[in-house]
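Q: What does the assembled structure look like for these inputs?
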Amino acid sequence: MRLRAALGPLLVGLALAALSHPAVAGLIAGLFGAPARRQLSASRLLELGSHHLALAGLGLLLVGGLGVGLGITVTRRRASGLRSAIDTAAAAAQAVPPVVVVALALPVLGFGGPPTLLALVAYGIMPTLRGTVGAIEAVSPEAREAGIALGLTPRQVLTQVELPLAGAGILDTLRVALVLSIATTAVGALAGASTLGTPIVAGLQNQNLLPMLQGASATAALAFLGDALMLAVAALVRR
Amino acid sequence: MTGIAKPLDLPAGVSIRYTFSVLAVASALSFTVTALPMLHLAANRLVVGTPVSAAVLGQTGWLICGLCLLGASCMGATRSRLAAPVAMVAFAMALLLFTVALGQAASGLTDGQPPATRARLASGAWAGLLLLAGTSLWAAGRTRINGAGWLLVAGLLIGFLLLHRAGAYDGLSLAVEYRAREAVVQGAVLRHIALSAAAVSLAAVSCVLLYAWRRSRGVVEIAINGLQVVPAVALLGGLVALASGLLTAIPALRATGLSALGPGPAILVIAGYLLLPFWRGLEAALRAADPSSLDAATAIGLTRRQILLDLHLPLGAPILVGALRVASVQAIGLATLGALVGAGGLGGIVFDGMAQFAPDLILLGALPVIGLSLFVERGLSLVEDAVHRRWRG
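A:
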């Protein structure tokens, strides 16, 4: 039962989500003797959380579509010459941290969602592309040649041999991409996107413990729950 | 299926089609770049301003185009040993000339204007700079001379530095912004390096200690993996919230010099994320020696210390350097976020720029971050290769 792998992240996620609830977080802040001022209500947390999820989900859709699509393209025989160029580009893209992408996009794209989305795509696409290429290349040549020997067309080899065998690896890549995009979306709060990072950044600026704690645990909860979801999907697909 | 991993290489014969496609791509790219605005002339450092077209580059623009054409035809047409070095020099010269032309154009545009006027590099300039840098590195890779890329980068950097000293870039807004905060930027670069280095050393030491703690290795591994899932912003916020809560609850702790803000929590958080690359590196490095040679070593009576130094270290060293490379690049990126909790560094400049909406200030913080991580990445992978050759023959 591979579903059990998802249990750990699920429990951690639920615990963190409970911690972000105003009543629980207020209680903990009270234990430290901090004044419970300007705490986030549950409805505000939900609103920020749904914004966060929408932005991260859109980012994952773009990253997944582009990354997996490009990954399939460059593993075709015709495009073999592009491989080294792509590896160089991947290394270069990793050198630009998401905060810097958000910051650089700010003057061009303005405040809010667009620079965050750009950072999501810019930072997420290369790991996804690399992961997809790795998963497809890990398919044994024998399986591929057996497909060719059976008379499958290149397209059929892709959809009936390569993708089913590489599916688990690609799903794992997408899980990492989802966690990465939830983290990057939190950074987007710096560019004024209203996400769960917003209370953290605001709390850090005016030294307000409670929203900081709530935002931090809610963001982390979202990341763990996303992780658990993707692990569960992978387990169900693999069966 | 061997064709898949084949690197980009010279075609077997010089085909007209290849030459034609290289030239076609080159002209399409240069046409696009010249169609984009080269500079933005703005009334002050905060507004966007009006675009200035490539015509402002004048005669030099044509010279740059000529050099690019020479480089592209060398790359596309001839297969002689000289072609790639000539192309590399042509592209590098074009790059240097391009920066000078942009600087001159900026000085010309701001001359006689109010002192707040800024000439800022626009999309065309950035695209051109990136393209020329990319193509010259591409040509350097084709020269098959060892270290041609490093030679090129060093040459270009010296060129830029000399030109900057000579005042060739003084008109550009980035240079104006830098002049205003030279000391701040230099201090931030040093602080950024110190933050990253502190985090890397802390993570390396604690990883070794945690690994040596055999009994709880499984639990530690789960914790390290789980930590990766927590977004950095959340970990920073959570740690600061808990630390400040703790300091409020036990005021005596403050007297010991502990603080909820500053470099301390930032280094702790960065180091937390670096545990995973080090952990994986350590595991792989220790696995690199195969069991039979370990048995043999024990059989001939080597001590554990000798096995570690003579067997594990030589085999695992390249893997450990690889882990150090991955961790260092991550540390430089994460250190940018450290400014959120008052740790300083280049992130401070970036966040100031974002708060003021001043593009040049953002660039002033962002460019060194990118430069530092590229430098560390390339430099440590060079070390990795050298270690690999040294110990594996």
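Chain B touches chain A through 54 residues (CB under 8 Å).
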